[in-house]
Amino acid sequence: MSERFGISESDAALLITATMLPLAIAPLSYGYLLEAVPAMRVLRWSLVGLAISELAFVLVDSFI
After folding, report:
1. Residue of 35, 55, 58 lying closest to 47 (CA atoms)
2. Distance of CA 58 to CAs 19, 34, 51, 52, Å?
3. Cα 40 to the chain's mean position, in Å?
4. What is the pLDDT, as a whole number, of residue 37?
5. For 1-64, where are the E strands, in sequence order?
């Protein structure tokens, strides 16, 4: 990834850390969210958000 975008390996590692950090924090709020909203609704919105973000990441051609 660092070669493709012309960035240092430490910048690439920082990007990976920044993407994984929400995955460490989000499970803390899942219980509260699933008590308030039906699980299928959460799953549907999560998949929509994932699809949109994946499409956006595919179209990126620079690091910044």
Report:
1. 55
2. 15, 30, 11, 10
3. 20
4. 93
5. none
CB 6 within 8 A of CB 64: no
User: Phi and psi at residue 20, in whole multiples of 5°?
Assistant: -85, -25
The answer to pTM > 0.90 is: no
Residue spans per domain, the chain: 2-59
Tens digit of each residue's pLDDT, the chain (64 residues): 677 778 888 888 888 888 899 888 888 888 888 899 999 999 999 999 999 999 988 888 776 6
Q: What residue has token string 């240092």?
A: 8
Q: Which two tokens stand for residue 13?
A: 């590692």
Q: What is the Cα–Cα distance from 10 to 62, expressed in whole angstroms?
A: 17
